[in-house]
Design brief:
By secondary structure, the chain is of the alpha+beta class. It is built from 8 helices and 4 strands. 7% of the residues are buried.
Length: 250
């Protein structure tokens, strides 16, 4: 960083790695940069800091340079203890008004600024969560209705299989097979579409994760669990019925 004991540091620069790459500097320390155009006085680079994100992750880290300029005293950055935020703001306001009474005091919080970078993503997340819950509820009702219809159509088959010695587990699996097949067909059709859509969304970020198979595996296991539970509730009830009553009614 800058050394306040060195008067030369007031006319020097510290830059980030992105600045070094953009300028094509192999040995940046000691290189001079004209900060305010060709007529300005060249300022030497005395240090290079690692790249850090100071904008949204939608953007790549841009070149940055730092210098000491007492006349550019527009913002102060203050670290406050979490339990004394209000007291710290009041103290900062009093200190500011004692120094610059002609300029009104204003303040902002870093975490609030960071949240504004991703307001759209937060809204999208809430919308997807709400939509997903609605879809799951509607899907469960649909599966429940389809299960009732399937069992009603196969009651005679269930009764005959039970008379011939089929166990409850076999009968429950018999009903579940149809829905497992529909699930597999749906997964094959939807995974490429979902993968493409999420990939396009992630491309809007300069820095992002890669989509792994584990996400689809977790989703698939969750959906299978919901299907099995929804279908098995009625399948078990049908499998436990007296086959004599089933065949007599048929």
């Amino acid at each position: 960083g800058f050394d306040s004991n060195l008067s030369t540091d007031s006319s020097a620069l510290v830059v980030n790695e992105a600045f070094v790459r953009a300028m094509g500097l192999e040995n940046p320390i000691g290189e001079k940069v004209k900060l305010w155009g060709q007529e300005s006085t060249p300022m030497p680079i005395i240090g290079v800091v690692k790249d850090f994100n100071f904008q949204s992750l939608h953007n790549e880290v841009n070149p940055v340079l730092f210098n000491i300029n007492k006349s550019s005293n527009w913002f102060w950055t203050i670290k406050l203890a979490p339990e004394a935020v209000e007291k710290g703001v009041a103290h900062a306001k009093a200190a500011w008004e004692s120094i610059e009474p002609n300029y009104p005091f204003g303040h902002m919080f870093l975490d609030s600024n960071l949240q504004t970078f991703y307001r759209q993503e937060v809204q999208l997340e809430k919308a997807i969560q709400s939509f997903a819950i609605i879809c799951i509820i509607i899907s469960c009702l649909g599966i429940y209705g389809m299960t009732s219809y399937t069992i009603e159509q196969r009651m005679k088959e269930i009764g005959i299989r039970k008379v011939l010695g089929a166990g409850v587990e076999q009968l429950v699996w018999l009903i579940n097979q149809k829905f497992m097949l529909l699930f597999l067909i749906t997964m094959v059709l939807t995974i490429p579409v979902v993968y493409y859509a999420i990939s396009k969304w992630l491309d809007g970020f300069a820095y992002h994760i890669n989509i792994g198979y584990s996400s689809f595996m977790f989703s698939g296991i969750t959906v299978i669990g919901i299907i099995v539970i929804t279908v098995s509730i009625q399948a078990i009830r049908a499998a436990l019925m007296n086959p004599v009553k089933i065949l007599r009614s048929e």
